[in-house]
Write a structure and sequence with these properties.
The complex is a heterodimer of chains A (186) and B (53).
Chain A lengths: L18 H18 L2 E4 L2 E4 L3 H8 L5 H18 L6 H26 L1 H28 L3 H32 L8
Antiparallel strand pairs in A: 1-2
Chain B lengths: L1 H26 L16 H4 L6
Classes of the chains: A mainly alpha (186), B mainly alpha (53).
């Protein structure tokens, strides 16, 4: 079947991956790599600011939460790639999903229900929970440590994690607040 | 204790994404309506000198 210029029509994407969404996700994923090079030193390694773009996507009310989730997973993998995948690629992928839960669900829900300050508080509380509750599992699965040693390592990494997460979410909140009433938040 | 830690980690990793994914697929995201923006305090009547019939 041939189409003439009269028959031609603009077909809008109705699925999740619309052109504008793919564009902004690509930009934010690229910014994650930049953030991965900005390190906050901790006793158990350097925590990067790779999650700032994911937090930013989560803070934008009109955007989809899955955007932030995808950015968070890829940000984690890219940040791990920069330092040579410590703990292995499988654990880094699981950490990426953990990051997505943290950013795209916990922080976003707090932002949607209670506002920006609640998102910052929820992020810090979740950091403590992840670090002390589930953090030892990483070292147990990754290095085969026993629980007390794994817990001690998680505890040692907590201050750095709190600073890195706090810094990331505050930067993201500032950017999201600045762009809240613009055409970008649609 | 190792098992408990792994279970907590798994729950904190996969739990929120799966639960929120199912919730939003059924009911959409729980977006709160925006608060109306604060007015500057200047009303249209003020801009015309406050005179009214």
């Amino acid at each position: 079947m041939t189409t003439t210029s009269n028959d031609a029509q603009i077909v809008k994407s109705k699925g999740f991956f619309t052109p504008i969404r793919i564009s902004r996700m690509a930009i934010l994923i690229a910014l994650s790599v930049v953030g991965a090079f900005i390190k906050v030193p901790t006793p158990t390694g350097d925590a990067g600011l790779d999650s700032v773009p994911a937090y930013f996507a989560a803070m934008m009310k009109k955007w989809d939460w899955k955007e932030a989730a995808v950015i968070a997973v890829l940000a984690r993998l890219l940040a791990a790639a920069v330092v040579g995948f410590p703990l292995g690629i499988v654990i880094q992928l699981i950490l990426g999903i953990s990051n997505a839960s943290w950013v795209a669900v916990v922080a976003r829900l707090a932002r949607l229900r209670f506002g920006f300050i609640a998102a910052i508080v929820a992020t810090e509380i979740w950091a403590v929970g992840v670090s002390l509750g589930g953090g030892p599992a990483l070292y147990i699965l990754g290095f085969g440590m026993d629980y007390p040693a794994a817990f001690a390592l998680s505890l040692a990494g907590l201050p750095g994690l709190l600073v890195a997460a706090g810094l990331a979410v505050v930067i993201a909140v500032a950017a999201a607040k600045a762009l809240d009433n613009t055409a970008l938040n649609k | 204790m190792e098992t408990v830690s792994i279970i907590i980690f798994a729950a904190m990793t996969f739990g929120p994404v799966i639960a929120y994914g199912i919730y939003t697929a059924r009911r959409g995201e729980p977006r709160r309506a925006d608060k109306p923006r604060k007015k500057s305090g200047v009303t249209p009547a003020d801009t015309t000198g406050g005179a009214s019939a």
